[in-house]
Amino acid sequence: MNASDVWKVCKRLEDGNRASCLLCSEILHCKGGSTSTLRKHMRLCHPQTSSSASNVGASFALANTKISGYFGKARPPMNRQRQEQLRHKLVEMILENLRPVDIINMGRGFFAVVEFLHPSCPRIGYRSIMARIRIKYV
After folding, report:
1. How many degrees, rounded to 5, is the angle at CA 129 between CA 106 and CA 83?
2. From 42's CA, which of 19, 29, 64, 111 has a CA 20 to 30 Å away?
3. Domain for residue 48, yes or no?
4. Tens of pLDDT along 67-121?
5. C-alpha to C-alpha distance for 138 and 132, rounded to whole angstroms
6. Burial label, 2 (beta-carbon count in 10 A; 0-12, 13-18, 19+)
7. Could you list the residue range(s) of the whole structural domain that residue 119 is in?
8. Residues 28, 62: one domain?
């Protein structure tokens, strides 16, 4: 994937030094317009899109129009780092979408989806999420 192709699946944020991956919403650094971090992210996290530069647009369109496109992909193992990433994303979802933190305790539907997407995912506790929210805003 060359530098110009990466912008088909990443969007530069307003500050100009960060970009958001349109495939997984990860925020990446791209200081001065550098695309090396973005290309590395694509190669490691989305190898199906980085293997063929001409296929990037088609892969992106498929990934965003059909949820079934996710299920053929290999899932990263649920190690400590991945668990922390999941907690971080959950905190972001709660805060950005103004959801009640009780989704952790009462959100059986939410956890059914998480377990379906990654069966080895452990339950995330209310205290764990609240601690991360406090760290972020206190």
Report:
1. 100
2. 111
3. yes
4. 555 555 566 677 888 888 888 888 888 888 888 877 776 667 777 877 777 777 7
5. 10
6. exposed
7. 80-137
8. yes
Q: Which amino acid is at 106?
A: M
Cα 96 off chain centre by? 14
Query: Residue type at 57?
Result: G
**Sheet with 10-12: strands ordered across:** 10-12, 18-21, 27-29
Give Cα separations from 51 to 2, 39, 43, 55, 133 (angstroms).
11, 11, 8, 8, 38
Q: Phi, psi at residue 3, to the nearest 5°?
A: -60, -40
The two three-digit tokens of residue 54, written as one number: 């001409």
pLDDT at 58: 45
Nearest to 9 by CA among 26, 29, 33: 26
The packing angle between helices 80-96 and 126-137, to 10°, is 70
